[in-house]
Specification:
alpha/beta, Metallo-beta-lactamase, Chain A, 6-stranded mixed beta sheet, binds zinc ion, binds fe (iii) ion
Protein backbone atom coordinates (compact mmCIF):
# COMPACT_ATOMS: atom_id res chain seq x y z
CA UNK A 1 0.00 0.00 0.00
CA UNK A 2 1.36 3.38 -0.98
CA UNK A 3 0.69 6.14 1.50
CA UNK A 4 -0.25 9.63 0.33
CA UNK A 5 1.46 11.39 3.19
CA UNK A 6 5.02 11.68 4.54
CA UNK A 7 6.52 12.70 1.24
CA UNK A 8 9.90 14.26 1.77
CA UNK A 9 11.01 16.82 -0.82
CA UNK A 10 14.26 18.72 -0.95
CA UNK A 11 15.76 20.95 -3.61
CA UNK A 12 18.81 22.57 -5.06
CA UNK A 13 18.79 26.00 -6.66
CA UNK A 14 20.09 26.49 -10.20
CA UNK A 15 20.79 29.50 -12.41
CA UNK A 16 19.15 32.70 -11.14
CA UNK A 17 15.79 31.42 -9.99
CA UNK A 18 15.26 27.74 -10.86
CA UNK A 19 14.42 25.05 -8.32
CA UNK A 20 15.40 21.46 -9.02
CA UNK A 21 13.22 19.29 -6.76
CA UNK A 22 14.27 15.98 -5.24
CA UNK A 23 11.44 13.60 -4.37
CA UNK A 24 12.62 11.18 -1.70
CA UNK A 25 11.51 7.61 -1.24
CA UNK A 26 9.21 6.86 1.67
CA UNK A 27 10.61 6.24 5.15
CA UNK A 28 8.44 3.13 5.55
CA UNK A 29 10.35 1.69 2.60
CA UNK A 30 13.63 2.83 4.16
CA UNK A 31 14.08 4.67 0.88
CA UNK A 32 14.72 8.23 2.06
CA UNK A 33 18.13 8.37 0.38
CA UNK A 34 16.61 7.36 -2.94
CA UNK A 35 15.61 10.38 -5.02
CA UNK A 36 13.80 11.35 -8.17
CA UNK A 37 15.27 14.49 -9.72
CA UNK A 38 12.71 16.87 -11.24
CA UNK A 39 13.76 19.14 -14.13
CA UNK A 40 17.53 19.18 -13.75
CA UNK A 41 18.44 22.18 -15.86
CA UNK A 42 21.98 21.99 -14.53
CA UNK A 43 23.79 18.81 -13.42
CA UNK A 44 26.46 20.38 -11.26
CA UNK A 45 24.44 21.46 -8.19
CA UNK A 46 22.53 18.17 -8.40
CA UNK A 47 25.68 16.04 -8.40
CA UNK A 48 27.20 18.10 -5.59
CA UNK A 49 24.13 17.57 -3.44
CA UNK A 50 23.95 13.85 -4.24
CA UNK A 51 27.59 13.40 -3.20
CA UNK A 52 27.22 15.52 -0.10
CA UNK A 53 24.17 13.62 1.17
CA UNK A 54 24.96 10.18 -0.29
CA UNK A 55 21.67 10.20 -2.17
CA UNK A 56 20.81 7.35 -4.52
CA UNK A 57 19.29 8.78 -7.72
CA UNK A 58 16.58 6.53 -9.17
CA UNK A 59 14.96 8.54 -11.95
CA UNK A 60 14.56 11.92 -13.61
CA UNK A 61 11.16 13.56 -14.20
CA UNK A 62 10.99 16.20 -16.95
CA UNK A 63 8.01 18.55 -17.35
CA UNK A 64 8.94 20.25 -20.65
CA UNK A 65 11.77 20.75 -23.10
CA UNK A 66 13.16 24.16 -22.09
CA UNK A 67 16.88 24.12 -21.45
CA UNK A 68 16.64 25.38 -17.87
CA UNK A 69 14.73 22.13 -17.14
CA UNK A 70 16.65 19.67 -19.30
CA UNK A 71 20.24 20.92 -19.59
CA UNK A 72 21.56 18.53 -16.93
CA UNK A 73 19.94 15.32 -18.18
CA UNK A 74 22.84 13.96 -20.21
CA UNK A 75 25.42 14.39 -17.49
CA UNK A 76 23.16 12.80 -14.88
CA UNK A 77 22.28 9.85 -17.11
CA UNK A 78 25.96 9.31 -17.84
CA UNK A 79 26.83 9.48 -14.15
CA UNK A 80 23.99 7.36 -12.73
CA UNK A 81 22.40 5.35 -15.59
CA UNK A 82 18.88 6.27 -14.46
CA UNK A 83 15.66 6.31 -16.51
CA UNK A 84 14.23 9.62 -17.71
CA UNK A 85 10.47 10.23 -17.71
CA UNK A 86 9.19 13.10 -19.83
CA UNK A 87 6.56 14.41 -22.21
CA UNK A 88 5.77 12.23 -25.24
CA UNK A 89 4.87 15.26 -27.33
CA UNK A 90 8.21 17.07 -27.15
CA UNK A 91 11.61 16.28 -28.59
CA UNK A 92 13.89 15.75 -25.65
CA UNK A 93 17.03 13.60 -25.95
CA UNK A 94 17.55 10.73 -23.47
CA UNK A 95 13.87 10.23 -22.57
CA UNK A 96 13.34 6.58 -21.66
CA UNK A 97 9.62 6.77 -20.83
CA UNK A 98 7.57 9.16 -23.00
CA UNK A 99 4.44 10.06 -21.02
CA UNK A 100 0.94 11.34 -21.63
CA UNK A 101 -2.08 11.98 -19.46
CA UNK A 102 -3.66 8.95 -17.75
CA UNK A 103 -0.34 7.14 -17.52
CA UNK A 104 1.00 6.41 -14.08
CA UNK A 105 4.55 5.99 -12.86
CA UNK A 106 5.17 3.46 -10.16
CA UNK A 107 8.53 3.43 -8.40
CA UNK A 108 7.99 0.44 -6.17
CA UNK A 109 11.25 0.41 -4.25
CA UNK A 110 10.65 4.03 -3.23
CA UNK A 111 6.96 3.47 -2.47
CA UNK A 112 5.98 6.19 -4.93
CA UNK A 113 3.19 6.46 -7.45
CA UNK A 114 2.52 9.44 -9.73
CA UNK A 115 -0.16 10.31 -12.25
CA UNK A 116 0.65 12.27 -15.38
CA UNK A 117 -1.36 15.34 -16.40
CA UNK A 118 -1.20 17.04 -19.80
CA UNK A 119 -0.92 20.78 -19.18
CA UNK A 120 -0.05 22.37 -22.56
CA UNK A 121 0.23 26.13 -23.07
CA UNK A 122 3.70 27.21 -21.92
CA UNK A 123 4.98 24.52 -24.28
CA UNK A 124 2.93 22.26 -26.48
CA UNK A 125 3.68 18.98 -24.68
CA UNK A 126 4.12 20.20 -21.10
CA UNK A 127 3.19 17.57 -18.50
CA UNK A 128 2.87 17.58 -14.71
CA UNK A 129 3.38 14.87 -12.11
CA UNK A 130 0.78 14.40 -9.40
CA UNK A 131 1.10 12.07 -6.45
CA UNK A 132 1.17 11.92 -2.65
CA UNK A 133 -0.72 15.25 -2.46
CA UNK A 134 2.09 16.90 -4.39
CA UNK A 135 2.09 18.45 -7.84
CA UNK A 136 5.25 19.02 -9.87
CA UNK A 137 4.01 21.53 -12.36
CA UNK A 138 7.15 22.90 -14.04
CA UNK A 139 6.43 26.24 -15.70
CA UNK A 140 2.66 25.89 -16.11
CA UNK A 141 1.61 27.30 -12.74
CA UNK A 142 3.85 29.48 -10.60
CA UNK A 143 3.32 30.65 -7.06
CA UNK A 144 1.06 33.63 -7.71
CA UNK A 145 1.35 33.35 -11.48
CA UNK A 146 1.52 31.11 -14.52
CA UNK A 147 3.96 30.41 -17.32
CA UNK A 148 4.10 32.56 -20.42
CA UNK A 149 2.32 31.05 -23.38
CA UNK A 150 5.21 30.32 -25.74
CA UNK A 151 3.89 27.49 -27.89
CA UNK A 152 0.25 26.83 -27.08
CA UNK A 153 -2.79 29.08 -27.10
CA UNK A 154 -4.44 30.98 -24.26
CA UNK A 155 -7.36 28.56 -24.61
CA UNK A 156 -5.06 25.58 -24.05
CA UNK A 157 -3.45 27.22 -21.06
CA UNK A 158 -6.85 28.08 -19.64
CA UNK A 159 -7.89 24.45 -20.01
CA UNK A 160 -4.69 23.24 -18.36
CA UNK A 161 -5.15 25.57 -15.42
CA UNK A 162 -8.84 24.63 -15.17
CA UNK A 163 -7.73 21.03 -14.63
CA UNK A 164 -5.72 22.13 -11.62
CA UNK A 165 -8.80 23.74 -10.06
CA UNK A 166 -10.23 20.24 -9.68
CA UNK A 167 -7.36 18.97 -7.53
CA UNK A 168 -7.53 18.78 -3.74
CA UNK A 169 -7.00 22.06 -1.90
CA UNK A 170 -4.22 20.60 0.23
CA UNK A 171 -2.15 19.63 -2.82
CA UNK A 172 1.38 20.99 -2.44
CA UNK A 173 2.38 22.92 -5.56
CA UNK A 174 6.02 22.64 -6.61
CA UNK A 175 6.81 24.97 -9.49
CA UNK A 176 10.22 25.40 -11.07
CA UNK A 177 10.99 29.09 -10.47
CA UNK A 178 11.20 31.61 -7.67
CA UNK A 179 9.05 34.28 -9.32
CA UNK A 180 6.59 34.73 -6.48
CA UNK A 181 7.33 38.28 -5.36
CA UNK A 182 7.17 39.63 -8.87
CA UNK A 183 4.02 37.62 -9.60
CA UNK A 184 2.24 38.91 -6.53
CA UNK A 185 2.96 42.51 -7.51
CA UNK A 186 0.96 41.92 -10.64
CA UNK A 187 -1.71 39.97 -8.75
CA UNK A 188 -2.21 43.01 -6.56
CA UNK A 189 -2.76 45.23 -9.57
CA UNK A 190 -5.56 42.89 -10.59
CA UNK A 191 -7.06 42.51 -7.11
CA UNK A 192 -5.91 45.34 -4.82
CA UNK A 193 -8.56 44.47 -2.22
CA UNK A 194 -7.91 40.74 -1.92
CA UNK A 195 -7.07 40.32 1.78
CA UNK A 196 -5.52 36.87 1.41
CA UNK A 197 -3.32 38.30 -1.30
CA UNK A 198 -2.17 41.17 0.92
CA UNK A 199 -1.32 38.63 3.62
CA UNK A 200 0.54 36.46 1.16
CA UNK A 201 2.61 39.40 -0.04
CA UNK A 202 3.67 40.11 3.55
CA UNK A 203 4.64 36.47 4.14
CA UNK A 204 6.48 36.31 0.83
CA UNK A 205 8.43 39.48 1.61
CA UNK A 206 9.51 38.04 4.97
CA UNK A 207 10.61 34.75 3.39
CA UNK A 208 12.62 36.47 0.70
CA UNK A 209 14.26 38.84 3.18
CA UNK A 210 15.62 35.77 4.96
CA UNK A 211 16.48 34.12 1.64
CA UNK A 212 13.89 31.36 2.04
CA UNK A 213 12.05 29.80 -0.90
CA UNK A 214 8.39 30.73 -1.28
CA UNK A 215 7.74 27.42 -3.04
CA UNK A 216 5.94 25.08 -2.46
CA UNK A 217 2.57 26.64 -1.87
CA UNK A 218 -0.78 24.93 -1.55
CA UNK A 219 -3.38 24.77 -4.25
CA UNK A 220 -5.78 26.41 -1.81
CA UNK A 221 -3.55 29.47 -1.48
CA UNK A 222 -3.18 29.63 -5.26
CA UNK A 223 -6.95 29.49 -5.71
CA UNK A 224 -7.29 32.37 -3.23
CA UNK A 225 -4.54 34.62 -4.57
CA UNK A 226 -3.33 33.62 -8.05
CA UNK A 227 -5.15 35.70 -10.71
CA UNK A 228 -4.47 32.99 -13.31
CA UNK A 229 -6.62 30.53 -11.38
CA UNK A 230 -9.29 33.13 -10.65
CA UNK A 231 -10.86 33.62 -14.09
CA UNK A 232 -14.20 32.57 -12.56
CA UNK A 233 -14.06 35.22 -9.83
CA UNK A 234 -16.02 38.47 -10.26
CA UNK A 235 -13.30 40.83 -9.06
CA UNK A 236 -10.82 39.39 -11.58
CA UNK A 237 -13.37 39.50 -14.37
CA UNK A 238 -14.16 43.15 -13.61
CA UNK A 239 -10.47 44.08 -13.50
CA UNK A 240 -9.85 42.32 -16.82
CA UNK A 241 -12.85 44.08 -18.37
CA UNK A 242 -11.59 47.44 -17.17
CA UNK A 243 -8.21 46.69 -18.68
CA UNK A 244 -9.69 45.51 -21.99
CA UNK A 245 -12.36 48.25 -22.05
CA UNK A 246 -15.00 45.72 -23.09
CA UNK A 247 -17.10 42.99 -21.55
CA UNK A 248 -15.62 39.50 -21.48
CA UNK A 249 -18.01 36.67 -22.03
CA UNK A 250 -16.17 33.55 -20.92
CA UNK A 251 -13.68 32.56 -18.20
CA UNK A 252 -11.24 31.70 -21.02
CA UNK A 253 -11.47 35.30 -22.28
CA UNK A 254 -10.88 36.60 -18.78
CA UNK A 255 -7.82 34.39 -18.53
CA UNK A 256 -6.50 35.47 -21.92
CA UNK A 257 -6.96 39.13 -21.05
CA UNK A 258 -5.19 38.86 -17.69
CA UNK A 259 -2.33 36.98 -19.34
CA UNK A 260 -2.08 39.64 -22.05
CA UNK A 261 -2.20 42.39 -19.42
CA UNK A 262 0.77 40.87 -17.62
CA UNK A 263 2.66 40.18 -20.86
CA UNK A 264 2.53 43.84 -21.81
CA UNK A 265 4.17 44.88 -18.52
CA UNK A 266 7.66 44.08 -17.27
CA UNK A 267 7.29 40.93 -15.21
CA UNK A 268 9.60 37.90 -15.19
CA UNK A 269 6.83 35.40 -15.97
ZN1 LIG B 1 9.94 26.80 -19.38
FE1 LIG C 1 11.69 27.40 -16.78
Amino acid sequence: MISRTNLKISHVAAFDDNYIWFIHGLPEKSAEKQIIIVDPGDAEPVINSIRHHNYLPQAIFITHHHHDHTGGIKELVDAYQIPVYGPANERIPHITYPLMEKQTISLTSMGLLFDVLDVPGHTIGHIAYLGHQSLFIGDTLFAGGCGRIFEGTAEQMHESLSKLLNLENDTMVYCAHEYTQDNLKFAQRVEPDNKQLIQRIEQTTQLRLSNQPTVPSTLELEKQTNPFLRFNIDSVKTAAENFAQKSLKTPAEVFRTVRYWKDTRNYSA
